[in-house]
Structure formats: structure tokens, C-alpha cells
């Protein structure tokens, strides 16, 4: 979180080997969450409805799993978790849709906050992470760099497509 960067300024310089207390546990718990959600989707949803999220979760599980197992890149994974702040509003949107509350002030307000947090916490964070990877290529082993680059190459278009769908659905009907 931004507060963590203020409390642990060394994170600015080293997202590979440095991380604040509790960060490793947070990333490990996040792997567990993504694994549980992955299994839940496999068991309770049709594949054609959930394949994108299953794919997303697979990438996150691999990338975060590497950070947890190696005790490296935990700082980078911590930055990646900023993306999940927007998930609150994406999930609230789904709940409001299921409750047939699309034509309410609550839904409209959530749509605006959802889009704002999407840009700040998804698009900006993914762009920053991609930039960090490119600028720090010489400090990252080739295999890890490849995993990170492939992960970003998958996540960025997926998030741009979802952003377009949200815009189209909630603002350009």
C-alpha cells in the first residue's frame, strides 16, 4: 500500500529482496485465496462463464507462488495486490446486478467509483509494474523475468478488455 512505501522506503529501491514484516504472509494468504476461488469456480461455474477468471487466477497463483516459495519478489507481489482494491467495487457491481438494482443511485455511484479505482489501482499499477520489470531487467534472472513479462503480457490486455466492457455496459448503453 502507499503507506507501506512511506514506512518502508527501501521498497522503492528493491522490490526483489526487501519486504515489510507481514508482507510474505499476506502474499501467501493471497495465494490461498486465489487457489480456493479457482477451485470454487471450477466446481460451481460453467467453464465458458469463468475461463477468463480461471486464467487470471492461474497467472496470479504462479507469480505469487514463486514469490512465496523463493522469499523474493514479495515487494513486487505486494504492489500487485493494489490491483485487488478495485475488486471490492467489481464484486459490489456484481451483487447489485444480481439484485436487479441496476437503475439505482447506489449502482450508478458504484459504477463511477469502480471506474475510478479501476484506472488508479488496475491500469496504473499494471503499467507501473511493466515499467519496473523493463527498467530492472538486468537485476532479474531470465526465468523470473520471463514469468513476470508473460504475466504482465496476459494481465494487461485482459484488464484493458474488462475496462472496455465496463465502460460499454455502465456508461455507453
From TrEMBL:
Predominant localisation class: membrane
Q: Which gene encodes it?
A: Tlcd2
GO BP: any one term: plasma membrane organization
Kindly provide the name given to this protein in its UniProt entry.
TLCD2 protein
TLC domain: residues covered: 1-173
Cellular compartments per GO CC: plasma membrane
Which interval of the chain is the signal sequence? none
Keywords of the record = Membrane, Transmembrane, Transmembrane helix
- What InterPro entries does its record include? TLC-dom, TLCD
Print the organism lineage: Eukaryota, Metazoa, Chordata, Craniata, Vertebrata
Report if keyword Membrane is assigned. Answer: yes
